Each structure stands twice: as structure tokens, then as C-alpha cells.
């Protein structure tokens, strides 16, 4: 019996090992299939923008040129000022943020011209992308602060102009520090995928980043709601003042000021509301296993809405001229002075020709 049992022991061991091998092989094959299916799903979702690529390149080029001219002219006008109030401090920072945003647009133009291939070092993709959104949300926050400032002034809660301007400087400095710090953190933690940039990405493993994007979306809608309430209130107060002073010769200026109040709200709505309406749906799709069909729809819709957001950088100069009489006077003075200098140079040139012909 001992001999028989000992002779069957190796056979039992072989059978057990064989079963273990089969189980391990099945587990390995299942893991490989899952991995390969995941890779195939990621690679299969090749989003084809088609004619949208050329449209994006042209749109960003136009926005860059017009935004660069408008914001440089506005900054030149701001630097000509001797006295500052709180709104002008905010508008100056809006102009700086818009100018920095326009500097990001040539990189997007080159990316789309190269058929959506990022040709520079991957770090520049992360820097350009985060700087674009950083300056966009700085502009959004500053427009909200301008509405608060105008509302408090109309409600007669303001203090001296100097202290008000200094407080605006402190608020703007704090805003820039927070925004730059957040951008640096995002650049350090963000991953870059191959040669794609400004492209739809799955973010199942980056829930912290999507949580931050949710937070920014909530901040936008809070600012937007307050913007509506404050500017409607401002317009009503100005209209009431106009009615009470209807017999005065300057009563019409209050009606004009009431209409100008809606310029900020109009630009804000056109540029930012479409993008942030889609934003929550877009972020949610990145956190889920979204089919390729919906990924392409999300990506294309997001790109179109982002162009509208970038348009804010070339529409904001309208705010500078409408909200600040000093900016308006300075720009008109510069344009008139340049026209006067050209006329004087032409007259000098004509006199020189006349002297030569004598």
C-alpha cells in the first residue's frame, strides 16, 4: 500500500499543477483581453474634426489680430492716465488678462494648421492650455468685481476714491497670485498624451482635476447670476434718476448710462454662457466610459464654444470705451493727435516741394 500511494503522488501533483496552469492561463488571457479592449477603445476613438480644423485656425487668427490691437490700444490709454478709480483698476487688469490670452492663440492656430499635431515640447502644451483658462477666468472674476463696484457706487456705499482704488489694487494682486498658483499646480500634475493638445481626454483617474473644473463652473454661474441682478438693479436706478430729473438738461445721460450697463451683460452672455452651459456635460463625459460617437460630439461642441469664449478678448475693449470716459477721451485724443501730426507732416512736405519748384 505504501508503494502504491507513493507511486500515485507525482501523478496527483501533476494534475494539480496542470489545473493551476489552466487557471492562470485563463486569468492572464482575460486580463490581456481587458487591457487590449481598453487600448482598442482608446485608439478607436480617433476624432476627425474635418473642416472644423480650418475654421478654428481662421477664427483664432482673427481673434488674435483684433484682440491684440484693441487691448494694446487700451493699455496705452490706461498708462496715459494720472488719476485712477476702482473701475479703471479692474479694467486695466482685464486688458492685461485679455492680452495674455491672445498670446496663447497663435499656438492654437499652429496646432490646427498642422492638422491637430503638437509640434513643440509637451510642456508648452500644458503651459499654453492652462494660461488660456487662467486668463479667461481672471476676466470673468474681474467683470463680476466691476459689477459689484458699480452697484455699490450707485447705492452710495463707496468711500473715498483713493482708498477705493487702493483696495481694488489689493484685490487684483490677490486674484493674480491665486490664479498663477493654481495654474502652476495644474501644469505640474497634468499629463500630456502623445502629440495631441487641446483635445478630448478621458479623466477617470484625474477626478481631482475634474472636481476643480466643476468648482470653476459653479463660480462662473454665481458670477453670472449676480451680474444679472446687479446690472438690472443699476439700470432701474438710473432710469428712476432720469425720470426724477427729467426737467434737467443732463437727464438724458442717465438713460444712456442705463443702456450701457447691459453691454457688459451682453458680452458676458454671448462669450461665456454657451461654453459653461456645455461644461458640466463635457466634464461628466470625461469621467465616464463614453462611446466614441458622443466623445466626438463633445469635443467638437467644446471647440466651437471655446472660440466664443476667446472672442471676449477682442470684445472687451468695447467695455473700456463705454465704462470709462477717461479711456474714451484718451483714445480719441491719441487718434486726433496722430491725425493732426499726419496733416502737419503733409503740409510741411507740400511746402518743401513748393520751395524746390521756386
What would the keywords be for this entry?
358 residues, G protein-coupled purinergic nucleotide receptor activity, disordered N terminus, disordered C terminus, membrane, single chain, mainly alpha, 10 helices, Rhopdopsin 7-helix transmembrane proteins, globular
- The helix-and-strand class reads mainly alpha
The overall number of domains is 1
Largest sheet: none
Proper CATH architecture: Up-down Bundle
Radius of gyration: 30 Å
Q: In one word, what is the shape?
A: globular
Topology order in helix (H) and strand (E) letters: HHHHHHHHHH
Give me the number of helical elements: 10
Strand content: under 5%
Total number of beta strands: 0
Share of helical residues: over 70%
Can you tell me the CATH superfamily?
Answer: Rhodopsin 7-helix transmembrane proteins
CATH class: Mainly Alpha
GO molecular function: G protein-coupled purinergic nucleotide receptor activity
Keywords: Cell membrane, Disulfide bond, G-protein coupled receptor, Glycoprotein, Membrane, Receptor, Transducer, Transmembrane, Transmembrane helix
Subcellular location: Cell membrane
Domain G-protein coupled receptors family 1 profile: 70-320
What does it look like?
This protein has 358 residues and is an all-alpha fold. It has one domain (47-331): Rhodopsin 7-helix transmembrane proteins (Rhopdopsin 7-helix transmembrane proteins). The protein is built from 10 helices and no strands. The protein has helices at residues 2-44, 52-79, 86-113, 122-154, 161-189, 207-244, 252-287, 292-310, 312-323, 325-357. It is globular. Residues 1-9, 28-43, 157-162 and 354-358 have low confidence and may be disordered.
